Amino acid sequence: MKSQQVILALLALCSPVLLGGCMLVAVGAGAAGTVAYVKGDLEAVEAKKLDTVYDATKKALEQLELSVSVDTKDKISATIIARDSSDKKVTVKLSAATEDSTNISIRFGAFGSETKSGMVLDKIKENLK
């Protein structure tokens, strides 16, 4: 049991470095659909323009009945902050990776929730179809 815990701890410590490197390689290669959970943030890359992902994100938050409190956008980035019924903050940051692809970062709560962030990402992807 002890050795399993050590291995899991090592994997947990190494995964942000390994996944972060893969994420950079994927973005540099123009790949889309890459998803990683790093330090409480769910990171994804979509092969869609920033404006398209922004519209899909706003619609997703509305469909999930999350109350938007901050909504800022320019030509290269956007930040939308919402709250759930328990007043937990949900932050979605979008940035143009290229003209035709967008980086998405989702943090649910102060420490992050991979499951709930995944629900937001899934709803965004539904709206991109």
Architecture overview:
This protein is α+β, with helices and mostly antiparallel strands and 129 residues long. It has one domain: Kinase associated domain 1, KA1 (TATA-Binding Protein, 2-Layer Sandwich). Helix content is 43%, strand content 33%. It has three helices and six strands, in the order αββαββββα. A six-stranded antiparallel β-sheet has the order 1-2-6-5-4-3, sandwiched between helices. The longest helix is centred in the first third of the chain and has 27 residues. The radius of gyration is 15 Å and the shape is globular. The N and C termini lie far apart (45 Å).
CATH architecture: 2-Layer Sandwich
Task: Please tell me what the overall shape is.
Answer: globular
CA-based gyration radius:
15 Å
CATH hierarchy, class: Alpha Beta
Total helical elements: 3
How much beta, percentage-wise?
25-35%
Please count the beta strands (DSSP E, at least 2 residues each): 6
Structural class: alpha+beta
Which sheet architecture does the biggest sheet show? 6 strands, antiparallel
Distance between the termini: 45 Å
Share of helical residues:
40-55%
Order of helices and strands: HEEHEEEEH
Mean pLDDT: 83
What number of structural domains do the residues give?
1
CATH superfamily: Kinase associated domain 1, KA1
Please state how the strands of the largest beta sheet are arranged side by side.
Answer: 1-2-6-5-4-3
Provide the low-confidence segments as ranges: 20-31
The CATH topology name reads: TATA-Binding Protein
